[in-house]
Design brief:
With about 270 residues, the protein is an alpha+beta fold. It is built from 2 helices and 22 strands.
Length: about 270
């Protein structure tokens, strides 16, 4: 995972940089959150590696929330999450949204499986397919309807693109928040977190296609033209025939057992 940052409200203090590794967070002389060198002085710690980011509380720590929900011991974090610690709300910043790409002509089928999954708010747990243009707004006919006060009738549009999902603002008061950044447009990728309105959180998700399998696919198709010296593919019928003697032996043994049972059981 790339370097993450914890940002203070209104950028009143310098961001806390969380590169790969373990980072302990405590308090400075003013009582504000800061990075500390000694674990004894920490209240929480962040672990960042290629798999993601985790938050762990020191034993006895209370009053810490992630996205408004209390954390008792440990929580997995995503870029765009808010961490509320001792009256200070820190935003976990991830990669900033990419610039809008050119208008596509064809969208690959692999990107037609991208979904928008609710992870907080009224649509928590629901999934919305993004195989076509999707409008987020307060109107009942919106593809993703968010009927909360002050939400725009037509807030934003999500459009499939060969490079990801394009976010376009449709006239909302403050735009949307992507990975902790306030934006009105940009190119989104699977794994990005989007916040609409006050706290309507969504995650872009898509099935993972291994680059190894993707690169091997053309080779697999060309195997039909391989030279005859290559090892032939075993026929399923031939494999079944090789298993037949064992099936016959089992049937004979079972028949013999039944015959003995009938013979001696009748006496």
């Amino acid at each position: 995972m790339d370097t993450l940052r914890l940002r203070f409200p209104n950028r009143e203090r310098a961001d806390l940089v969380l590169s790969r590794g373990v980072h302990a967070v405590g308090h400075d002389a003013d009582g504000e959150p800061c990075l500390v060198d000694r674990a004894d002085n920490a209240r929480i710690q962040f672990c960042v590696d290629r798999r993601g980011a985790w938050l762990q509380l020191r034993e006895g720590t209370r009053g810490l929330h992630v996205n408004g929900r209390p954390v008792r011991r440990m929580a997995m974090l995503r870029a765009g999450d808010t961490v509320h610690m001792d009256g200070v709300e820190l935003v976990l910043l991830g990669p900033s949204p990419r610039a809008l790409p050119d208008v596509p002509t064809v969208v690959p089928d692999v990107l037609r499986h991208v979904v928008l999954r609710g992870v907080g708010g009224i649509h928590h747990g629901r999934c919305f397919n993004l195989d076509r243009s999707c409008v987020v707004g307060r109107l009942a006919e919106s593809d993703v309807c968010i009927a909360e006060p002050g939400f725009a009738d037509r807030h934003a549009r999500l459009e499939p693109h060969p490079e990801g999902i394009v976010l376009r603002d449709l006239g909302s008061p403050a735009g949307s928040v992507v990975n902790g950044y306030q934006v009105r447009e940009g190119l989104l990728l699977p794994g990005d977190q989007i916040v609409f309105g006050a706290n309507q959180r969504f995650l872009l998700e898509a099935p993972y296609v291994s680059p190894v399998f993707a690169a091997a696919a053309p080779t697999a198709v060309g195997m039909a033209d391989a030279p005859s010296s290559a090892e032939p593919t075993r026929s399923p019928v031939a494999s079944s025939m090789r298993r037949m003697p064992w099936l016959l032996l089992a049937a004979v043994l079972l028949a013999g057992a039944l015959a003995l049972l009938l013979l001696y059981g009748a006496r």
